[in-house]
Amino acid sequence: MGVVIPLEDGKNKQASVKPLVDLTRPDMERVNQLILSRAGSDVQMIPEVANHLISSGGKRLRPMLTLASAAMFGYQGEGHIKLATSVEFLHTATLLHDDVVDESDLRRGKSTARTIWGNQASVLVGDFLLGQAFRMMVDVGSLDALDVLSTASAVIAEGEVLQLSVAKKMETTEDDYLSVIRAKTAALFAAAAEVGPIIAGTDRSTRNALKSYGMNLGLAFQLVDDVLDYGGKAADLGKNVGDDFREGKITLPIILAWRRGTAEDRSFWRKAIENGETSDENLEKALGLITRYSGLTDTIARAEHYGAIARDALAPLPDGAHKDAMMEVIDFCIGRVN
C-alpha cells in the first residue's frame, strides 16, 4: 500500500550518504566501539534492550554530522568521539521512549524493545542511555557543548509533550506541527552539527551556520518521513505504512488535506483521527484525499524549501570534502521519496 510521488527535478535521485560515511568511517568505528562499551552494564537487561535498538541498522546520520562538522575545521582531539556517541545515545533514548508513547510494534523493521521486554524496561533503559550521554558530555569538558546538547535534550522532551497535546486534534495548524518537529527531530540535528565547531574552537557565526544547517536539515528529514508514512514501502520504512494514521498523528499531509477539503472530507477526518476509526479501508480513503489535495507533493515542496535554507547556511563555510558531503546529505534526505 502506498503512493509513489516522483519529484519533478531528478537531481536528488543519485544523492547518497556514502561520501559522509566514507569520510567519517575511521571515527565512526571508534564511536561504535564506545557505544557498545557505554551501553554495557552489570544489569543484564540494560545491554540487551539497548543493543537491540543500537544494532538494528540505523544510518547514524546525527553522530556523523558531529564528526564531520568537527573535522571540517581541523579538530584533532578526542572530544568529538564522545560527543558523537552522546548524540547517538540521546537519539536512541528518544526512540525507546517514543515507541512506548506511540505504542509502536516495529522500529527499523524489527519488533520494538517494548514489545519484547515491556514498556517499563524500554523507558528505564532509555533513561540509562540519557545518563550515559551526559556523563560523556561532562568528560569532554566543554561547557558550551554540554549546554547545546542538554538544551536539545530538554527541547526534545518538550516536543514529545507538545505532540501529545495536539494528537488527534484536527484543528492542529501547520505552525503547531512545525513546532513539534522542530523540537522532536530538528533540535537534535542542529545540536549534532553545532557541537563539532564548538570543540574545534570556531567563532560564533560558524557555530550558528552549522546550527542552522542542522535545524533545517532536520525539518526536511522529518517532512520526508511524514510523506513516506503514506507514500513509502514498509520494507524501506522499517515500520508499517500508515502507522502515523493509525496512531492519530497529525502530520502535514493530513493538515493540508483537512484544510483544503470539503465539509464531508473533514467529517471523515474527524471520525478517522479523532474517533480512532483507522481501518485499512479508511487508510485507503485517507490516502486518496491526501493525494487529491496534493498533501504529499506539497509536503515535499516544504522539505525542499528547508533543504535550500540548509544549503545556504553551509554556503559561506570553507570548501572541501566535508562540506560537499554535508551538502549531499541534504539531497539524500529529500531524495528518499523516490
UniProtKB/TrEMBL annotation:
<dbReference type="Pfam" id="PF00348">
    <property type="entry name" value="polyprenyl_synt"/>
</dbReference>
<comment type="function">
    <text>Supplies octaprenyl diphosphate, the precursor for the side chain of the isoprenoid quinones ubiquinone and menaquinone.</text>
</comment>
<keyword id="KW-0808">Transferase</keyword>
<dbReference type="InterPro" id="IPR000092">
    <property type="entry name" value="Polyprenyl_synt"/>
</dbReference>
<comment type="similarity">
    <text>Belongs to the FPP/GGPP synthase family.</text>
</comment>
<dbReference type="GO" id="GO:0046872">
    <property type="term" value="F:metal ion binding"/>
</dbReference>
<dbReference type="InterPro" id="IPR008949">
    <property type="entry name" value="Isoprenoid_synthase_dom_sf"/>
</dbReference>
<protein>
    <recommendedName>
        <fullName>Octaprenyl diphosphate synthase</fullName>
        <ecNumber>2.5.1.90</ecNumber>
    </recommendedName>
</protein>
<dbReference type="GO" id="GO:0106350">
    <property type="term" value="F:all-trans-octaprenyl-diphosphate synthase activity"/>
</dbReference>
<keyword id="KW-0479">Metal-binding</keyword>
<dbReference type="InterPro" id="IPR033749">
    <property type="entry name" value="Polyprenyl_synt_CS"/>
</dbReference>
<keyword id="KW-0460">Magnesium</keyword>
<dbReference type="GO" id="GO:0008299">
    <property type="term" value="P:isoprenoid biosynthetic process"/>
</dbReference>
